[in-house]
Give the backbone structure.
Amino acid sequence: MDRLKFLKKFKTFDEWYEIVKDILNDEEFLKRKKFKHHGEVSVYEHCCLVSLKSYALAKKLHADSRTAAIAGLLHDFYPKAWVDSEELKELDPEYSSQLNKKLPLWKMHGFVHAKEACLNYQKFYPHLVDKKVTNAIKRHMFPLNIVPPRYIESWIITIVDKECSTKDVIHIKGMPKKLVIWFIKLFK
Ligand SMILES: [Fe+2]
Ligand SMILES: [Fe+2]
């Protein structure tokens, strides 16, 4: 699993992998290795980390850990890339067709990708459609998207996603590092 080798140090790796292996090895999901997400981190890497951490937290909280694993993996399964990269050229141009479009604020990635990811997971993995998974994906951008998550599993995805995203962006040049470190410490 190339850059994901570090996930194996998590105690819950093997049981998590059993739940998500079909998605991880699915052709459409594998394309997310070519989608850049935050800096050098791909959508594939980001989603794996959110999924595994959410799974572990859900277990600790006696919540539905299977739902947390699946929703964590698919929470950013939006259909078109939002960051340009060399790797994208290996995919159908449809995946990068929105990159150079000027969009109004409310149609920009941060505001719309949760809903898009939700529709996309229903399209590619209809056998996984479930009200908790749907809610977790659709509401993970709270509070930017103003409707809050409904279930504990949805809250877990929302919080773990913010923790992982904050750690990703600290490596991006020009980020105000003190602010990012302060935010990360909120989760300690
Ligand atoms: Fe997201
Ligand atoms: Fe995310």
